[in-house]
Amino acid sequence: MQNDLEILTLQKDNVNHTKVLVPPFLSKQPVSPNLGLNVILALMAGFFMSVFLAFLLEFWQRNKDRIKSLSAHP
Fold first, then answer.
1. Does residue 60 contact residue 67 with C-beta atoms inside 8 Å?
2. What is the DSSP annotation of 24-52?
3. I need a surface site. Which of 7, 17, 43, 53 has the fewest CB within 10 A?
4. Rounded distance, CA 49 to CA 55, Å?
5. What sections of the protein cross the membrane (predicted)?
6. Domain count within the chain
7. How far apart are CA 4 and CA 10, in angstroms?
8. pTM of the model
9. Rounded CA gap, 69 and 64, in Å?
């Protein structure tokens, strides 16, 4: 623990050639979630998950016996 503290102290001393390029500032308009983008992304994610689930269920139904025979092995 003490060794880690010494290493971090030495690393801190090596980072002395930095400067702030743009000073921080407060936005005049409040930042809020983009509702339209969130809705579109949620719809797309739901669509792709439902397509994936449909393919998975189709695969499972077609290969049910094969899956049971493979999982029956000890």
1. yes
2. ----SS-----HHHHHHHHHHHHHHHHHH
3. 17
4. 10
5. 35-60
6. 1
7. 10
8. 0.51
9. 9
